[in-house]
Structure formats: structure tokens, C-alpha cells
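task queued by scheduler; priority normal; single chain, no ligands, no partner chains; default sampling; output format set to C-alpha cells
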Amino acid sequence: TGDQNRLAYIIVDEEKSYLAKSPVLPAEKNVKRVEMEIEVNPDLSISVREELLLSGSFNTEWRTKLKNSDPENLVERLRELAEMDIRAKMGKFKISDLNNMDEQLRITINYDCDNLPSREEKTPTPGPSQEGRGVGDYLTPVGDAYLLKLPIAEHPYAALLSENTRNYPVAIGKNFTLEHEIQVKIPKTFTIQSVPEDAAIKTDWGEIAVKYERTKDKVVMTQKFVLHQPIISVQQVPQFTELVSLASHEKYIIILNR
């Protein structure tokens, strides 16, 4: 739940101390933004450039984990934090100054994958990946077309989707914003057959919007999830689950050989 909206014991001196709640930053100050450029190569391998921009509690959390990582374990820690599929071949990466807390943390990672499933494999069933975001499952053949899955990180509260009922509030502990911008570029030998429809849900305390822009050889998906309160009441849980469900739903575009 982070270190916001939590009781802290403050010691002023030997005679004076008190309990106080840590401040809660607004959603626009706790931001995790993921920008991805995915290129489908003519041989159907995938090349990816991913940039993560983190501020507020996300900044603090990731800096702490990365600073406490041994140099020999840094790559694995990055793969874990970025939720990379185990089959992704990691290339160059860059991390901004971990000691400068005044700036947002910026991480750039390049990787690729050429593990294309065979045509005998079935169409994937929507659901959380067991191996990260599924770089190796970006492209799945279906007849003469291919399903291209957009690799969105699992929502931090996706576990709520498996609950039938809930009798107590959800203690988020912070307001936050999760942003994704995923750009997919396809080779000239392919055409874009279809993309999902735009979708949005808005409440007084949270919202999500998913939008698609399509050109001849490129699709850009943007998804923005914003939560404006650190605790979700029992009465609000059904609506919160709808927001999380839309954010977690696997999103595909269909490309076709010309």
C-alpha cells in the first residue's frame, strides 16, 4: 500500500512525540507511465523499445529496489520490475540517476523476441499471463491472420477480479495514475485488419479511458487509469472492479498478410 496515508509515530524530542498520518499525494503526483514502441519485423520477430517514467511513490519504490540490487542481479531485477516475459532477449538499457530524488525515474529498455507460436496452437484465452506480459505470445496465427497482443502490465489490483464478494474496504493507500502508450508498427507486407473499440468508465473517484489511433502501418493505443482516493469502500468495490477489469482485459489487434 506504500507509505502514504499511514500512521507514523513522530518523535520531536525526549519529552514530545505524537501520531500523525503521512500525507497523501494527488493522483497526478503518483504516476507510472509506460511508453512502448513495438516493431513487427518481416520475419515476424518482435523488436521493442520500452521507457518507464515514474514519479511519487512509484519513483521511491523502484529507486529503493534498484539501489538495493547487486550489480550482477540488476538485469534480473529490471526484468522483474518491468514484468518482462522470460523469453524476451534483453538488449541495452539505461537508468537515470538513482540518487537524484528531485527528478522522476526514467528507465529505457530494448529487447526482442522471435519465439513465434506454431499454427497448431490454439487462439489464446484472455487472462493474466503466467510469465510476465507475454513477449513470446505477441503474435498468434489464426488462419491467414495474426492476433497481436498488446503487452500491458498486469494491474496491481487484478486479484480483485477473482473475488465473488467482498465484505471489507480495499486499502489502496495512495492515489495514483497508470498510463500506457503502445505504438505498434507492422511491415509493408502486412495490413491492419481491425483494432478494438475505444472504451471508458468514469466515476467520482476513479476513471479509465482506452483509445486507439490507426494509420496504414501503425496502431497507437493509449490507456489511462486514475484513482483519486486511497481507500475503496465496500459499496464502491463493484465499480472499482469494473475499472480494473477494463484495464486488465487483454487487447488485440489483427494483422493480415497482403
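post-processing summary
- The first strand starts at residue 7 and ends at 11.
- The chain is about 10% helix and 40% strand.
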